[in-house]
Input
Amino acid sequence: MTLLRRELGDVLRERRRAQGRTLREISATAAVSLGYLSEIERGEKEASSELLASICGALQLPLSKVLSDVSSRMAESEELAPAVPLPVPTDTVVSASAA
Amino acid sequence: MTLLRRELGDVLRERRRAQGRTLREISATAAVSLGYLSEIERGEKEASSELLASICGALQLPLSKVLSDVSSRMAESEELAPAVPLPVPTDTVVSASAA
Output
């Protein structure tokens, strides 16, 4: 099962690195400890909504954009291992078993 | 500031109601207490990644879809009150002050 905090952490880390910024810089701007930010990026800790807003602010990224990235990544992993069973059209199943 | 947990709670509640299902039904399927689920829907409590996956499973909704809905709602509220200041082109500012 793909967890939100892992995909979110990956997105936050990728965005930070793409900006060429360090954990130290973002942690200072977002007023979060370096260790905690690192745990969030590694998907080991849940970020509260307030902290997430603060980290996005430090990265100068709208939260909507971060969530949209996370949604795309989750969609990809859901295609590989659907959490919700996909509906199978009945006629397809009949044809397959008849073949 | 629009918080993730509030938008997420709104989306989860709207989706549940659109399915004509009760808090009691979803809380039983998702193995979360009715009171806690209600607080999540009202944006008063953060849902852990595991619990969020469980609630989405009970609603038979891919998490990617829920996040995509939340992202769209956040984008709308960001347009009304941008958390990140929008860049103002320098020439526009010059023209405006010259006018």
Q: What stands out?
A: Chain B touches chain A through 31 residues (CB under 8 Å). Chain B has six helices and no strands.
